[in-house]
Amino acid sequence: MSIHKSDYEKLLSKYSNHTEAVELLKQYRPYLEMIPSIRRSEESLMTMPLPVVKLRKVPLGQQVDRFSPITTTSKTILLPCDLAYLMCDPEWKIKMGGEIIIFIHRPEEDLSDLLARWRQTQVLLDHDYEWVMPQYYRHIICESAEHLYPLFILFDRSDRSIKEGLTGAHLPFVTAPIQQIHVAELTLPDRGTELSDL
After folding, report:
1. Residue pair 172/152 in contact by the 8 Å Cβ criterion
2. Is the pTM here over 0.85, yes or no?
3. Whole domain around residue 17: which residue ranges?
């Protein structure tokens, strides 16, 4: 059975919640240990679905010669990942530590597509950047981090070659089961059944 867009949307919705994000990271302990305070997870872990960053000092054209200054600009972009988890000191309200970048296996996506999204994220965040924070987190001081930590979420029906490829590339992944809909739940009422009987 293939992966449907609704399966992807359910995981995106689920892991946008900080409580579910902690449960996700429990499946990969090195990342769980990055959270400053599990007890205060709502203040320690910021979840950002479909995150946006502002790249600073992006070159605007090529340098004419070595004596002329390089003209730069800033640019706001949507990252090709699905979620970003940022750590925050619950007392000082300052972003700290590395940044966990989440990639959910999308419908019709093969290994090269999935890896390309991670590589493109690496290239984009190699610039000086800042996170464009949602209104809820606007009070957090949020500069770029020194380290990015990827985590891939696959489905139990994701192609075996994707799991083998991520393993070979030494990239961590977890598997989320697709909840099956039982046939009995899809049974329609008999034609003779009146709407008032439903």
Report:
1. yes
2. no
3. 5-197
